C-alpha cells in the first residue's frame, strides 16, 4: 500500500509558529522599553556630570567668592532678572543662576506661546555644594540629585545612602533619588600668590 504524504503545514504547526513569533515580538518590545529607560538614565547622569564639572570650573575661576557658591540650589531658589555680574561676589550669584538654568533645562524648550515646556534639564533637580573650609582653600564637593523614573534603593552603607542632598524629596526612602557627586581641591589665591 502506497500512501502519499500531504505537502504543506498543518494547523497545529502554524499555531505553534505564530505563538513562538508572538513571544519573540513581546521579548523584543520589553527589550526596547528597557533600553529606552537605560538611555534616559544615562542622559540624565551625563547632564549632571557636565553641570557638576561646570560648577567646579567656575569656582576655580572665581576663588575670591568661594563661599558664595556653597549651599543648596533647586527649582524653588529665586534670582533677580536683572543681576549685576560685576565683581567676585556678584559673579558667584550670576553663576548660581546659570547653574539653576542648566539644571532645569531652560535653554531647551518645546512648544510655543503659553505651551512652552522645558525639555533639556534634570527631573526635579537639587544642587548642593559643600566644603570643610567654605570660602578658603579646601576640598569642595558638588552633589547633584534628581528624580529617576524607577525606584532603586542605594546599597546600605554607600555614599549614596548617607548623602543628605535632596534627602526626603525623592520618595519615602529616597528610592527615586539619583545622585552624581564630584569633588576637588580648590586653592584660593592669596595676596602673596600662594594658597590661603
- Estimate nothing, just give the exact number of structural domains: 1
- Tally of helical segments: 3
Largest sheet: 4 strands, antiparallel
- Poorly predicted regions are none
Distance between the termini: 106 Å
Helix-strand string: HEHEEEEHE
Mean pLDDT reading? 85
Strand count: 6
Helical fraction equals 25-40%
| β-sheet strand percentage | 15-25%
Helix-strand category? alpha+beta
Tell me, what's the shape?
elongated
Order of adjacent strands in the largest pleated sheet: 1-4-5-6
Concise summary:
The chain is α+β, with helices and mostly antiparallel strands and 196 residues long.
Name a few traits of the molecule.
3 helices, 6 strands, 196 residues, alpha+beta, two-stranded antiparallel sheet, membrane, 4-stranded antiparallel beta sheet, elongated
Structure overview:
By secondary structure, the protein is an alpha+beta fold. It has one domain. It is 37% helix and 17% strand. It contains three helices and six strands. The strands form two sheets. Strands 1-4-5-6 form a four-stranded antiparallel beta sheet, with helices on one face. Strands 2-3 form a two-stranded antiparallel ribbon. Helix 1 (11-61) runs antiparallel to helix 2 (88-104). The model has no long low-confidence stretch (mean pLDDT 85). The chain crosses the membrane at residues 12-35. This is Putative type IV fimbrial biogenesis protein PilV.
